[in-house]
Backbone:
């Protein structure tokens, strides 16, 4: 809960005589990412095991990345949750190697994940799903390639979306390699396969998140 303090001044004879402060709370319901994952990918299934392990690696990388920009005050609680759910849309795609027996092409898992999480009541988390593919997709990317996706920009915009998108690039969903972090050179080589614009976008994210944080002030 995030408190917002408001004040009421009571005036007599032109002077305030006392101050009342009260709190207005934004109530943020807690959520358990594993409960949502298990709703769509049963415990013990290949999809569930892969999804949890991959997402856990991305979560840890994302939290470490957030530390590099702590002066920007990233929402760590949100990053923990959203990074665990960023790939939830794979449950609807056709990818037997991941145990996924859906009907959609793999490229669709971002916007499908958005749809699932919006239905679950988490619209902010949903946007992370849609905006983490590659370094994000523009309408031109979708139209020109062409891709079987809704014609709208799918670029990471918030700081948290950028952190999770960046962290995801360092881990594969290939069973057997889930816990192996790719080197920066490997990630850049993969991005370059999709063109110089994608590589440039990744390099911009890397430049943002490779800066050392300013030392904190002492007590």
Residues:
């Amino acid at each position: 809960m995030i408190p917002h303090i408001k004040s009421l001044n009571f005036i007599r004879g032109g002077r305030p005589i006392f101050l009342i402060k009260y709190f207005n709370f934004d109530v943020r319901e807690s959520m358990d990412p594993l409960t949502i994952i298990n709703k769509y990918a049963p415990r013990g299934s290949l999809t569930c095991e892969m999804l949890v392990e991959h997402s856990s690696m991305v979560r840890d990388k994302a939290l470490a990345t957030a530390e590099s920009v702590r002066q920007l005050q990233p929402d760590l609680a949100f990053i923990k949750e959203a990074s665990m759910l960023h790939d939830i849309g794979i449950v609807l795609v056709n990818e037997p190697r991941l145990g996924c027996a859906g009907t959609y092409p793999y490229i669709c898992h971002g916007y499908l994940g958005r749809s699932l999480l919006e239905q679950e009541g988490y619209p902010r988390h949903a946007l992370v799903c849609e905006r983490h593919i590659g370094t994000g997709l523009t309408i031109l990317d979708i139209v020109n390639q062409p891709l079987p996706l809704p014609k709208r920009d799918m670029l990471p915009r918030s700081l948290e979306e950028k952190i999770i998108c960046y962290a995801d690039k360092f881990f594969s969903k290939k069973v057997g390699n889930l816990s192996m972090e790719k080197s920066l050179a490997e990630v850049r080589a993969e991005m370059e396969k999709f063109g110089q614009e994608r590589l440039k976008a990744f390099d911009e994210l890397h430049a943002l998140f490779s800066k050392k944080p300013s030392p904190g002030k002492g007590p």
About this structure: The chain is about 45% helix and 10% strand.
